[in-house]
UniProtKB/TrEMBL annotation:
Pfam families: DUF2784. The keyword Membrane applies. This is DUF2784 domain-containing protein. The chain crosses the membrane at residues 6-29, 41-60, 95-113. Keywords: Membrane, Transmembrane, Transmembrane helix.
Amino acid sequence: MAYRLIGEAAMVVHFLILVFMAVGGFLAWRWPRLIRAHLAVAAWGLMSVMTGVECPLTVVEDWGRRNAGERGLPPGGFIDHYIEGVVYPQEYTNLARLGVLILVLVSWLGYLWRRRRHPRGHTEADCPPPVHQR
């Protein structure tokens, strides 16, 4: 039972990391301290796509499932099993990767623009409305 929970937890965390990789830069517009974590996650994602290095979460999920007596992940790993052919057709893999890359770059450009506009990290939404004196 514990091994299965480990496998399931790794799968959930993996999905959350992928979502954060796609939209974390936009979250950093509101919470600027997230940008460092987003840079790290995006760098890992780029490196794994470019080099094919296996994600540790895939290893943990596969280990948990096998030790629970289940089938492990297929040779393509997490993305091949849960994303490609499920969320989008496999022949659109490069287009999906390009879409995520564009999304990340747009979020970073927006982050930089907001930081220049509000250098101390405060936005108009953070400031209380002006009090009118009589």
